[in-house]
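User: Fold this; tokens only.

Assistant: Input:
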Amino acid sequence: MPELGLGVPFWVIVLIWLAKVVLLVVVSALLAWLGVRAMDALIRQVDYHERIRESPMAIGLFIAGFFILIGLVIHGAITALTAVTAPIVWYIFDFRTWGILAVSFVISLLLGVALFYVVDKLTPNIPFGRINENPVAAGLHVFGYLVFFGLILHAALTGPL
């Protein structure tokens, strides 16, 4: 069964499609984790892990952001247009889609961090470094980043390429 076609039962096609969705979600979750780690490294003003750990509310915001991120990714993976024109292995391990995910994610991450610093400099009366004073503020900031990552990954999954 190298390729899908009319001779393949519908349930087999659904299982193969489901395998691709699960794999895209895992790859996207890995990218999001790397994005949070990169955010920690690039935005030195706030010790996110230490601050979030101090408050149940901040932990809840982090978890909520994570679920929104995963929901957006699952939606993007499920609704992504996919033509089954390749052998099954290349359909499931679609490195072109993975590449688009990675490139769009890295560029968006760098743009997001750059804009963080630009807006911080343009608004001197709103010191972004004060986020570090309150664990809930740090949790809300990470929540926003997780939603941002989810939107970027969703767009990459459902884009026309």
